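WARN no homologs supplied; continuing
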Amino acid sequence: MYERSPKLNSPALESLTAERPHTQVELHHEELKIHLDDTAQPLMSQVEAVNMFGLNGDVIAIIKLPTDEGMEPKNIAVVDYGPETSADNPKHVFVMEGEPKPALGVATERYGLTAFDYSAGHLAAMYPLTENQPLVLGRSPSPANFKLGLKNPEIPDNELISRNHLTVTLEAGVLAIADHSTNGTEVIYGATERDSRSQAMYQAVANVAVTNSAVISRQ
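OK structure emitted
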């Protein structure tokens, strides 16, 4: 079991990772690439995600942003709504008690980001991930940061989150998460064969302070 700082825990995140194989990466001015190919295993399937959290898609990863003491966690889910999702065939972001909730958002892209276990200050806390369009997240004013509750006048700023904290990019079947922040970014995701091979390179240094190297641990 990997160690987590208590300030980054939440009941929803504990439920997601309990008894579930997963990989955790701590990024400090580094980039993680998750290959979304046939070898990739979601952190949580669409059926499980609907039953547990109302999320109507596979949960590919959770992006954990640093949280000041006493503040809500900021854990953002990367969700795959399915290859059939498009503007012509939209998909409800949330399904609760068997009923779709259109007021909570509709996905027109296959992949999107959503507030996982915190209030974004409004209902439709989802932002699409569009191919080849890097998305910068943090405390800078932007539509994505407002949608995800990272910069909302109704919510106090979390000073541990940098203005331009990280960039999320989807390109050619690869999800890239690059940290630019002062306090780092954690990512929890289901392993892929390629990422498992990458882990072997870090195994010998997993418990050693290494400059500019991601620390990866597996449960």
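The chain has four helices and 15 strands.
OK
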